[in-house]
């Protein structure tokens, strides 16, 4: 049996529907919060007749290299958090020919897995990776690095850069809340100049306390930041937080958690094909929850799509 990939430019027309050869890249420092999940998924993959090659990362950068160098496989599966997935995406993006991405989510937020609607049970996830269809998503690029879900500068990038890894291990998302409060207490934050270019060539320049460029509509887990954002559309959404100061930052955070962000003053979402962010040189730019660039940065669409093993998109 074969699974037909609907006419994706530059892609092989089919992915084997059985006996797939998968390179599984595992970050052993991720996933302690989901003990047994990887083991059960791997067992189910083996039971389904997949041929698995397992590679464990020993340091940051390994996952990207393993994906870039993958040979004689039908797809590359990232087993880790969003940071590991991001590395694999960058490795796949550097290959001359596209190779599909699969994901075994083992991290804290697993935002891409949520956006793709991946099954949450090991057996169902393994069945998807073993025989499921491929969708073409359109990653973004910040500086020279690809991202699938979001990239941006401001408070959240500062939090991502400084979050305490030990606290993250212990408390998961709680560590981000602690670091956010720490950043707010630390004193005034910079203001950024954001240049947003839309598909018609229109340009708007604004001053903002934070800017998050969304490719997917989820953020920080399952919070909705840009309702119109869609992985499969070659379009960015610039989410602008124009009001500065602690009170505004707290209001924006609460607004996101409560789903009321769109009603808050100074929050705007602009469709875009290119976003430039300028501010203090060297400030961090986060992509998919890790620091992937420094200011000033230009954020645009990746030159080509990325095939991903995933269920058909849910109706929204
Ligand atoms: N063997 C390794 N040792 C140390 N760091 C690694 C290793 N493998 C990958 N990394 C790096 O660890 C970072 C965090 O990984 P990842 O995001 O996958 O897990 P996590 O932090 O548990 O999940 P989440 O991002 O969802 O919180 C990534 O930047 C990745 O590059």
From TrEMBL:
SMART domains: DAGKc. Residues 17-146 form the DAGKc domain. GO terms for cellular component: plasma membrane. It comes from the Bacteria. GO terms for molecular function: ATP binding; kinase activity. Signal peptide: none annotated. This is DAGKc domain-containing protein. Keywords: ATP-binding, Kinase, Nucleotide-binding, Transferase. It holds the Pfam family DAGK_cat. InterPro entries: ATP-NAD_kinase_N (IPR017438), Diacylglycerol_kinase_cat_dom (IPR001206), Lipid_Phosphate_FormReg (IPR050187), NAD/diacylglycerol_kinase_sf (IPR016064), YegS/DAGK_C (IPR045540).
């Amino acid at each position: 049996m074969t699974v037909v990939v609907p006419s994706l430019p530059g892609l092989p027309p089919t992915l084997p529907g059985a006996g797939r050869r998968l390179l599984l890249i595992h970050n052993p420092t991720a996933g302690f919060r989901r003990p047994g999940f990887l083991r059960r998924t791997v067992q189910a993959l083996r039971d389904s007749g997949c041929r698995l090659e397992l590679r464990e990362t020993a340091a940051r950068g390994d996952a990207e290299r393993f994906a870039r160098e993958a040979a004689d496989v039908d797809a590359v599966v990232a087993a880790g958090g969003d940071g590991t997935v991001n590395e694999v995406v960058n490795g796949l993006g550097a290959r001359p020919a596209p190779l599909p991405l699969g994901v075994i989510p083992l991290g804290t937020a697993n935002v891409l897995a949520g956006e793709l609607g991946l099954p949450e049970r090991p057996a169902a996830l393994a069945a998807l990776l073993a025989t499921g269809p491929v969708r073409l998503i359109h990653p973004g690029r910040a500086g020279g690095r690809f991202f699938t879900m979001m990239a941006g500068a401001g408070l959240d990038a500062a939090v991502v850069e400084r979050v305490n890894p030990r606290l993250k291990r212990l408390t998961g998302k709680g560590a981000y809340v602690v670091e956010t409060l720490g950043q707010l207490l630390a004193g005034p934050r910079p203001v950024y100049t954001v240049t947003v270019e839309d598909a018609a060539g229109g340009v708007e320049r604004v001053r903002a306390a934070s800017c998050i460029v969304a490719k997917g509509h989820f953020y920080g887990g399952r919070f909705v930041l840009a309702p119109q954002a869609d992985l499969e559309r070659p379009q960015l959404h610039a989410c602008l937080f124009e009001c500065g100061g602690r009170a505004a930052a707290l209001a924006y955070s609460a607004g996101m958690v409560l789903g009321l962000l769109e009603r808050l003053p100074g929050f705007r979402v602009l469709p875009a094909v290119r976003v430039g962010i300028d501010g203090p040189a060297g400030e961090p730019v986060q992509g998919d929850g890790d620091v992937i660039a420094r200011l000033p940065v230009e954020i645009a669409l990746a030159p080509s799509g990325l095939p991903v093993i995933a269920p058909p998109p849910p109706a929204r």
